[in-house]
Amino acid sequence: MITGATSEIGYELAKLFAKDGYDLVMVARNHDDLQAKANEFKSYGINVITMAKNLFTQEDAYSLYSELKLNGISPKILVNDAGQGVYGKFQDTDVHREVDIINLNIVSVIILTKLFLKDRLPKCSGKILNLASHCQQSTRSLAFGVSRYKGIYSVLVRGHP
């Protein structure tokens, strides 16, 4: 399962998985983009499930998991790629946009990672790839949404900064 699967790194990773013969669960907000990319990847002879979800909301993160579970789907690999950011000085950026980005870059990642992990641990299998921005290493970055917030789940996975 790949979040943010219709653009940039998420799209490129989905393409690589498809070329390697992996069936895909593709997650993104735009249904039309999902369908177009799914049709492209089906040419590799794989099965593709598309799920249009807005991971800015906790409800959609939970419903994504619930719908997979309801349909007996337990992905062996989770790629948390969906993410956004804002650029600018902290005092100049919109607080509502920042909160939305925290929900996308942190809250939905924690929800999906924890639920996925609980499903896969009893099976002793599975892999999780959480993508984060290289900007997180910079203390002077103006790209707060990506660098600071995705850096938090880097700590979650590794256990330290």
Write up what this structure looks like.
The chain has a single domain (2-158), classed as Rossmann fold (3-Layer(aba) Sandwich), CATH 3.40.50. Helices cover 48% and strands 12% of the residues. It has helices at residues 8-19, 31-42, 58-70, 95-120, 144-158; strands at 2-3, 24-28, 48-52, 77-80, 127-130. The strands form two sheets. The protein has a three-stranded parallel sheet, covered by helices on one side. The protein has a two-stranded parallel ribbon with strand order 4-5. Helix 4 (95-120) links the parallel strand 4 and strand 5 (127-130). Helix 3 packs parallel to helix 4 and helix 4 (95-120) packs parallel to helix 5. Mean pLDDT is 85; it is low at 136-141. This is SDR family NAD(P)-dependent oxidoreductase. It holds the Pfam family adh_short.
Order of helices and strands: EHEHEHEHEH
Domain count: the total is 1
Summarize the amount of helix as a percent range.
40-55%
The spatial strand order of the largest sheet comes to 1-2-3
Low-confidence stretches are: 136-141
Using only C-alpha atoms, the radius of gyration works out to: 16 Å
Structural class determined from secondary elements: alpha/beta
CATH superfamily: NAD(P)-binding Rossmann-like Domain
- Cα distance, first to last residue? 26 Å
Count, helices: 5
Measured by DSSP, the beta-strand proportion falls in 5-15%
Counting copies of identical and different chains, the oligomeric state is single chain
Shape: globular
Average the pLDDT over all residues and give the rounded result. Answer: 85
Going by CATH, the architecture would be 3-Layer(aba) Sandwich
Tell me the CATH topology: Rossmann fold
Describe the largest sheet: 3 strands, parallel
Number of strands: 5
Organism: Chryseobacterium endophyticum
Pfam families: adh_short (PF00106)
Protein name: SDR family NAD(P)-dependent oxidoreductase
InterPro entries: NAD(P)-bd_dom_sf (IPR036291), SDR_fam (IPR002347)
